[in-house]
Amino acid sequence: MRAIIFYWSRALYILYLILCLRFVGSTIVGHDGSRAVPIILFGVSAIVGFYFREVSILAFLAIVPLLGGLYDLSVFPDIYILGYLFSAISLGLLFRRLAERPYPQKGKVKRAALAILLSDIFITILALSMFRQLATNWSPENASRFLKQPLFGYQDDLYFITAAFVWFQGWFLFRETALAQISSLRFARSIFIWFAVTMICFACLQLLCHLPIPLNGYAFYSPFEDISSFGSIAVTTLVVIIAGFTNGTKSKLLAQWVLIAPMLALIVISWSRATWLSATLFLCIIAVWRLPRRFKVGAVAALVIGVALVNTLPRDKRLLESPYIGRLYSLGHIEQPFNKSPERVRLFHKAFGVISAHPLLGMGLGSFYKGSIQFAEADDPNGAKPDFAHDVFLQLAAELGLAEAAGFGVLILLIVVFAAWDLSRASATEDTKRLLMGVLLALCAYLTTQLTANSLNVYVSNQFVFWFLVASLVSRCDEIDNCGPSG
To answer: Is pLDDT at 199 greater than 60 in this prediction?
Structure first.
């Protein structure tokens, strides 16, 4: 059995290696300027990945927002720098990993190994769907584009290649981080502090210089792809930082608030209702967990009173005309889902229609965006408009089948349960428990935003953040397993 698992993982690594080579090669060939720039970036990154296996991934994670911001500013034209550098690092890691011969160590099945096994099953099913789509859409023209074009748009027949590559990059980061000899949980707070610093800097650049131009002129999203991506990562970052908040000297308190206050402001101006909801919910959970009783009661009471006021006070049409106040009011106002967000309900209807028609294998990886229009309701004004399902589980079920979506849910549930169990039994320091709890809450907060968004399905930046959170919890679980029961 160990031999089967070993060669299965090697097969997945080889497939990912091919995808990386295709992406890097097509980026270099299609670069309009001097090819020396992408070649040098590739060479340096691949060498770093080969010689500094664990450190290269953690260092890369810390600069994910920086790379996203540089891409937004077109600093590296014709290069999707975030995916390109990680592909180069991955190739360095892969060549070293594939040269290793030993089987996994004997002994009891550790929880990290179980999580890796579940992730391998998940990515295998996704790869099979990719091959199914490849067989359906293969043609001489598409074969040429497959080799020459790095990324494919949402409505492109070959978009499934990009969709698969996004998931493969996240899976590979998780697998390598979980297998690393160092616990990634120890670095989680430092990485998210760098996230906060970078996001604040790029938000100031967008606010003051309109670089890039905010969505609709007022909704900020840099250094990420859109307001949903920005908001999801912002609330995740804030939860990790606040959960680890510690008392100390005035300078230490000031340093913490210098990050927390701007991050709260970024969440407010994100214009994403899912971000607002997740931030409100999980900040209340942290307040109940960390604050004295009188503040706990105050936090919960403030939330209840706020919702009550929104639902009882008469509407002021002038206030509701404000894009922010209007969206905030719609979030807090209790009403039928169709009245609150009819376009989102109709999208969910499309998803359920796809799932009913293709419950086992789904309609194919990356096909929902364009293919779901045939499942629109007759009276849907946006029925012919392509879109994503705006729910990570619904989109997985629609494209890859109910079993794949359920397997993804089981993986997440196991990680959450294991981490919660560790919190109750681990003989760790209070600082470690705060960090473990912070990462656990951050994972839950992120997934809450993905119940009405599609960032995880679409953007590799979100893949990196999500899978790093999972790997951090896995590494802590495995660390405790190695230490034995603590009572």
So the answer is: yes
